[in-house]
Amino acid sequence: MEGDCLSCMKYLMFLFNFFIFLGGACLLGVGIWVIVDPTGFREIVAANPLLFTGAYIMLAMGAMLFLLGFLGCCGAIRENKCLLLFFFMFILLIFLAELSAAILAFIFRENLTREFFTKELKKHYLRNNDTDVFSSTWNSVMITFACCGVNGPEDFEAVPHLPYPSSEKAMPEACCQRELQSREGTFVNKEACLAGIERFQNRQGCYTVILNSFETYVYLAGALAIGVLAIELFAMIFAMCLFRGIQ
């Protein structure tokens, strides 16, 4: 009976890790294709910072799941205690990292307030200076989400900025409306926007826009994170049971 139970656990663990292996291989393949694709999709991704970062995150996740599934499959089907131990340690590290990230997110959640971002923007933003990482990141966010500042264009009235013509307001170019929401997108009317004509400006603050964009996915992401942690916990238990059962 004990042998049948061990055999059942072995094949269930193999099946479980085989799907992880396939998922990792798919993510890895898609990530590589997006980055090296010669047909022009690579340029679209490179022009959008969010897509560019997402492609590399997909690549890293694919590689991690690929390795994790491979170790689990080989360890289970070959009844290799060394591979099972590596599988257990690998999942344990991922589990602890995810748990630490969740705890840190909970502790520092108060820093993600509207007031915090407004204070940081007014302190560090340098308008159109794309050599500065902080300013470049904010410009990319404002262009991508068609928004301006944290609360709106008024945030830039007290922002230290580079010299600009007297005909232009303190509002940066990133707040001007574009035909396409990317750095290569053509301005609707840049001169009128910088001169203060509101209909050519993005008037809504980025905090509200981004919050509305991701609010739908926050609870889904939380439920998914809890589900992943539970699966990883069960995977570690199965790996240890199989490890102890192998003679």
From TrEMBL:
Q: Which PANTHER family match?
A: TETRASPANIN, TETRASPANIN-18
Q: Which Pfam families match?
A: Tetraspanin (PF00335)
Q: Which Cys-Cys disulphide bridges does the record give?
A: C147-C176
Sorted alphabetically, which InterPro entries does this protein's record hold? Tetraspanin/Peripherin, Tetraspanin_animals, Tetraspanin_CS, Tetraspanin_EC2_sf
What are its GO cellular component terms? Answer: plasma membrane
Name the species this protein comes from: Trogon melanurus
Mostly located where?
Answer: membrane
Query: How does this protein sit in the membrane?
Result: Multi-pass membrane protein
Segments crossing the lipid bilayer: 12-36, 56-77, 84-108, 217-243
Keywords (A to Z) from UniProt: Disulfide bond, Glycoprotein, Membrane, Transmembrane, Transmembrane helix
- Similarity field: Belongs to the tetraspanin (TM4SF) family.
- What is the annotated localization of this protein? Membrane
Tell me the protein's name: Tetraspanin
Note the PROSITE patterns from the entry: TM4_1 (PS00421)
